Amino acid sequence: MNQTEVKPAEGRLGILVVGCGAVATTFMTGVLMARKGLAKPIGSMTQYDRIRVGSGDSSQYLKYEDIVPLASLSDLVFGCWDVYPQNAYQAARYAEVLKEKDIEPVRDELGQIVPMRAAFDPNYAKRLAGDHVKTGLSRWQMVEALRDDIRRFKAEHDCARLVVLWAASTEIYVPVDASVHDHLADLEAAMKRDDRSRVAPSMCYAYAALSEGAPFIMGAPNTTVDIPAMWELAERMRMPIAGKDFKTGQTLVKSGFAPIISTRCLGLSGWFSTNILGNRDGLVLDEPENFHTKEISKLSTLETILDPTSQPELYSDYCHKVRINYYPPRKDNKESWDNIDIFGWMGYPMQVKINFLCRDSILAAPLCLDLCLLIDLAARAGRYGIQRFLSFFMKSPMHDYRAGEQPVNHLYQQYTLLKNALREMGGYPSDEPLD
Q1: What is the DSSP letter of 383?
Q2: Confidence band (pLDDT; 50, 70, 90) for 298?
Q3: For 114-154, how does the pLDDT look when each residue is reduced to its tens digit (9 = 90+)?
Q4: pLDDT of 307-342, one tens digit each?
Q5: Is the pLDDT of residue 4 over 70?
Q6: Helix 201-211 and helix 184-192, axial crossing angle in degrees, nearest 10
Q7: Among 192, 218, 194, which residue's Cα sits nearest to residue 205?
Q8: For the chain, what is the total number of helices (H) and then of strands (E)?
Q9: Which of 28, 82, 333, 387 is the most buried (most CB within 10 A)?
Q10: Are 149 and 115 in contact (CB under 8 A)?
Q11: What pTM, to 2 d.p., does this model score?
Q12: Shortest CA distance to 79 belongs to which of 170, 160, 159?
């Protein structure tokens, strides 16, 4: 694809975030500070990474913006929905992720980001008690109300394009039901008859976004767009979708360290992962039904990297467990522990211990920026449906499981997918094989 086929990033890009909590406000504050020259967007691939384009004597290493037309930070406009009415400044102070000195310089801008009422069902996040919600609506009415919000925001803020990003809590697990989730017509019918058990509120956001011509990013492990009905809508509207679940701390480590084990041909007996965190996400995940959704996402990482079918002697019988514990004193400062039982020459056992004291929102904020800029780029390049090149940023990468497709969880293979997509959209050969 020649770069001239990618539409330029002209006009304002509206970013509508579902949720105005720690992740969203850290993301928004960082962008506002960075464009004033008061902070650096460290951790953002789109702002720092350089990749090779061309080969041989003509090869060069360029930043993304020199390969493809990315939206500028100065053109971003933020809006949000939330179950609590506090504006982004108030929410950022409440989250206690950032210091006062890093919030106050953009106090006025954050104060103008006032959340719209959320489309919310307390049965999907029982630990949240916010009352800033759209009341008395069926699922289909939720969709219509959200579409109206999107149209109004776009007009009021003079946006040329929009992206909708889910940065809200993990919903309870919604199993894929073929009678509702396989075909768009069946999903729409379920929404219209107000099927609350099989149509999650997040599905209403995704349906509304895609119907209004906005790409949708699922930053939690919710089923939402990981169903054939949503793939059908994305293809009909020619809009890109990405998901699911931001890959920030422990799973980032897992997707990067597991390849060391497989490349070195070491065996695995077991991998035990546990976390403590005390933010609102931790509160919601303290509910077993919500944790189950996250557990499925986090457990899926190893199986395609340490593949028992290709190396049965090494990976046919390992034990993989994941735990998350809500511990309020830590707030957003998550700590994870991994105990990895491996075996080597002649079957002798060894262990690896990893202790990651991370900051959840500090790691998630640059992912939010990269995902929004790259999915907007994909839309302007005419790409639609599942964006596999964004798997690098996701714990549980979307794939067509109906066709037996396997997700790519290997961090370095994901990076290759990302680089090749950028090369293609920039008019260069996608010349790096996915080994």
Answers
A1: -
A2: low
A3: 999 999 999 998 888 889 999 999 999 999 999 999 999 99
A4: 899 999 999 999 999 998 999 998 888 899 999 999
A5: no
A6: 120
A7: 218
A8: 15, 13
A9: 28
A10: no
A11: 0.94
A12: 159
Of residues 18, 103, 34, 110, the one with CA closest to residue 73 = 34
The tokens for 77 are 């406009």
Spatial separation of the C-alpha atoms in residues 266 and 262, rounded to whole Å: 6
- Amino acid, single-letter form, for residue 390: L
Q: Which two tokens stand for residue 382?
A: 């005419």
The mean pLDDT value of the chain amounts to 94
Which candidate, 257, 215, 270, 208, places its Cα nearest to that of 382?
215
Q: How many whole angstroms separate alpha carbon 14 and alpha carbon 214?
A: 10
Pairing of strands 240-243, 216-218: parallel
Question: 134-161 in b/e burial notation, b at 16+ Cβ within 10 A?
Answer: beebbbbbbbebbbebbeebbeeeebeb
Cα separation of 374 and 240, whole Å?
10
**Amino acid identity, position 422:** L
Residue 203 has pLDDT above 50, yes or no: yes
- 3-state SS record for 183-198: CHHHHHHHHHCCCCCC
Residue keyed to tokens 């801008």: 109
Residues 335, 275 contacting (CB under 8 angstroms)? yes
* Angle between helices 250-263 and 288-299 in degrees, nearest 10: 30
419 upstream amide cis, omega within 30 of 0: no
Arithmetic mean of pLDDT, 395-420: 94
Report whether 53 contacts 428 (CB < 8 A). Answer: yes
Whether 113 and 78 have beta carbons less than 8 Å apart is answered as yes
Half-sphere exposure of 283 (CA within 13 A, CB side): 15
Interval 103-112 mean pLDDT: 98
Rounded to whole angstroms, how far apart are CA atoms 283 and 144? 30
Q: What angle do CA 363, 354, 336 make, to 5 degrees?
A: 50
Distance CA 234, CA 208 (A): 11
CA distance 205 to 224: 9
Q: Find out whether 209 and 216 touch, Cβ atoms under 8 Å.
A: yes
User: What is the structure's pLDDT at 1?
Assistant: 39
CA distance 162 to 212: 9
Say what the pLDDT of residue 88 is: 98
CB of 412 closer than 8 Å to CB of 258: no
CA distance linking residue 309 with residue 312, whole number of Å? 6
Query: What are residue 61's phi and psi, to 5 degrees?
Result: -105, 115
